[in-house]
Amino acid sequence: MSQHFIHYVPRRIVSRFPDDANHPWFADVQALDAGFFRPTFHISRRKTGPTQQVREGDTIWILGQIVSPWGVLPPGIDARIEVERVERGRDGALRFIASKQSQWFPLSDISHTLPFLKSLAGQGRLNELLKDPAAPIGRSLQSMRLLASAEPLEEHLGKLSLQPVHFISYRICDGTHAAFVKTKALLAQQQVVFWDRWSLPRRLAERRELVDCEALDCHLMEQLASAGTVWGIESPAYSAEGSYSQKEKIKALQLGTYHAVAGC
Predict the structure, then answer these.
(1) What is the distance between the alpha carbons of residues 147 and 129, in angstroms, rounded to a whole number?
(2) Phi, psi angle pair for 127, to nearest 5°
(3) What is the pLDDT of residues 71-110, one digit of tens each?
């Protein structure tokens, strides 16, 4: 019988990136198009606890939360890893290879679902997943936990699938703050959001590793085309010639989904 685990990984708004190719952030070589359409793996370096119990066929739910210079956004379900196999590195780290059934999810506030989750401890004892609901979730989920049931998460995703997605179009150089503010406002209205700081692979959103430009183009345009609304953060550099935001604005105007938002 398969088991469900849950792990927290923060997502950070990074404004300065290391440019040394030997920096640890650049050390994990991947295919240039890996990770756009589904997760490819998850790594844990914990040598004790539930991490060591994960087996082929199990599910790992990845919870995340955007941390920025302007505050934090509500936590959300970042991904569901359906474990195809487990690999152990030389340093003892466990690498959980994701099957093709694994998924990324757009950003949505899961705060109201978390109190219904319980974890299984030794001898089958049930514990509240969040011991202190007022504390940052990373404090309770800094290590992987075994879930008693994933049903509350599945119910949340069922509701999420029925809602239109709001796409945030902006320029990183001068529109990130305004994009954060708009995303926060949408989440407060219980909306579902595609913002690249959440929805792109971390190696691109938080680092600056080389990726396949065609795969990135395809992914962004597919997400924009399927969105109910595209919010253009019209900062001074927005829709500059040759920029992604220019492509996004043109496409959204053609689709009739474009709405302008003033930059901060």
Answers:
(1) 8
(2) -125, 150
(3) 999 999 999 999 999 999 888 889 999 999 999 999 999 9
**pLDDT digit string (tens) for 114-170?**
999 999 987 778 999 988 777 778 887 888 999 999 999 999 999 999 999 999 999
Number of neighbouring beta carbons within 10 Å of residue 23: 12
* The pLDDT of residue 31: 52
Asked whether 174 and 236 are in contact (CB, 8 A), the reply is yes
User: Rounded to an integer, what distance in angstroms lies between the CA atom of residue 224 and that of residue 173?
Assistant: 20
* CA dist., res. 253 & res. 80, Å (int): 33
- Per DSSP (E only), the strands in the chain are 4-8, 11-12, 41-44, 59-64, 66-68, 71-72, 76-88, 94-98, 103-104, 118-120, 126-128, 145-146, 165-169, 192-194, 229-234, 258-262
How many Cβ atoms from other residues are within 10 Å of residue 193's Cβ? 26
- Please provide the DSSP assignment of 91-125 as one string: TS-EEEEEPTT-EE--B---TTTGGG-EEE-GGG-
Interacting residues of 15 by C-beta distance below 8 A, sequence separation 6+: 69, 176
Alpha-helix residue ranges (DSSP H) falling in 189-234? 196-199, 202-205, 213-226
* Domain range list for the chain: 4-262
